[in-house]
């Protein structure tokens, strides 16, 4: 291949190993989350809900780096399962407020071992995992180094 096309070689891409690694990790989550009757994206929504208890839909969109049209069906499904309640914001009817239900809160106990199980995969050392997480958040935050809570409600 000509040198001018080296940038098009798959092995020279940053995006490909990120994409492939993300798929590998998510596939590893699937059997664990199946026991909880959650998809991976439902699981990350629930992690925010377990932490915050009640949030505005826009906070979830920002926190999870999702589009509103992706989040809406996830929330509807979680509501159907009884894990969250969705209501219009009393102050601004254009906004939705998502609230964790008792059933959703109870699910947290069943999910507590999921991160521990994945940590046992030993893909990275603890130091590598910390550095990799920092690098990924730097990419997500357009080059800004941040160690702040991704779901900081003061955004």
The gist of it:
With 155 residues, this protein is mainly alpha-helical. Helices cover 55% and strands 8% of the residues. It is built from 7 helices and 3 strands, in the order ααβααββααα.
How would you characterize the overall build of this protein?
The protein has about 160 residues and is mostly helical. β2 and β3 form a beta hairpin. A three-stranded antiparallel β-sheet has the order 1-3-2. The mean pLDDT is about 90. It is globular. The longest helix is centred in the N-terminal third of the chain and has 20 residues, at about 15-35. The chain contains seven helices and three strands; from the N terminus they run ααβααββααα. Helix content is about 55%, strand content about 10%. The relative contact order is 0.12. It has helices at about 15-35, 40-50, 55-65, 70-80, 100-110, 115-120, 125-140; strands at about 55, 85-90, 95-100. It has two domains: about 5-125, Arc Repressor Mutant, subunit A, CATH 1.10.10.10; about 125-155, no CATH class.
């Amino acid at each position: 291949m000509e040198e001018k096309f080296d940038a098009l070689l798959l092995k020279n891409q940053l995006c490909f190993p990120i994409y492939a690694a993300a798929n590998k990790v998510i596939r590893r989550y699937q059997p664990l989350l199946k026991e909880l009757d959650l998809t991976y994206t439902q699981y990350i929504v629930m992690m925010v809900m377990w932490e915050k208890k009640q949030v505005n839909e826009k906070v979830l969109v920002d926190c999870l780096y999702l589009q509103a049209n992706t989040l809406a069906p996830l929330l509807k499904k979680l509501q159907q399962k009884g894990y969250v309640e969705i209501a219009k914001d009393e102050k601004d009817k254009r906004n939705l407020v998502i609230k964790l239900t008792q059933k959703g809160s109870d699910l947290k106990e069943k999910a507590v071992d999921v991160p521990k199980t994945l940590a046992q995969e030993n893909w990275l050392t603890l130091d590598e995992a910390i550095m990799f997480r920092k690098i990924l958040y730097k990419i997500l935050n357009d080059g800004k180094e941040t160690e702040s809570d991704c779901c900081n409600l003061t955004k």
